[in-house]
Model the fold of this input.
Amino acid sequence: MNVKNYISLILMGMTLIACSNNDGTEHNQDPCGFINFKYYNGSQDLLGEMSNDYILIAVDSIYPNHEIEDFISTLNTFDQNYNYLIHKAENYKFKEIPLKLKASKSCEEISKIISDLNQDPIISYAHFTLKTNNCTNLIWEPIGDLCIDSYGSSFYVKVLNENDLTDLNQMIAQTNTELVGQNQFMERWFELRATKNSKGDGLAMANFFYESGLFEHSEPGISKYPVQ
Done:
């Protein structure tokens, strides 16, 4: 995780705190698999309500856009008239595409669609999205008329001692996650990645690592996408 990414992570955390209505109650995982919280300063911080209209898919950057577009054209669940955008962040392995469903779906229905999408080799991950009233970027510039939030495969863990990575390595092995790298400027921070073979997606794994009690912090990589 470079300095730019870390600053973005902190700013996004501040934005989410400002927009949340954290009243001290716990917000647990929905039975359908949707998670609406991350951890901040030892407490569950509400991220938002699930969007019933959008799903985020991600494809490895080795795929050219025309192959991604051809694949999306085969997905009958999604609105083929929707003018989606293919997002590629610098130094991030995947291209991310928020897609609009043909019709609003329940949490259980979206969970099934995500499960089906993840069976396809071209899909690196498919994630729930979240409603948001904030449609500005990290420096508060407007980016669209309607936005959604979601999360990537990467999450960021702050170890207690950068010279003893026993707990980190054991958790990586236990969860089938991957070590991406150590931050060169903040040596206690490590970027990890959840895959389709992991025990959960990027948000679930960020929470799980924190809940282990073995790490000082564990943050998901949350992003905002204009959809209108």
Remarks:
- Confidence is low (pLDDT under 50) at residues 1-27.
- DSSP finds five helices and ten strands in the chain.
- The first strand starts at residue 37 and ends at 40.
- The beta strands are 37-40, 43-46, 50-60, 87-88, 94-100, 123-131, 147-158, 178-182, 189-193, 217-226.
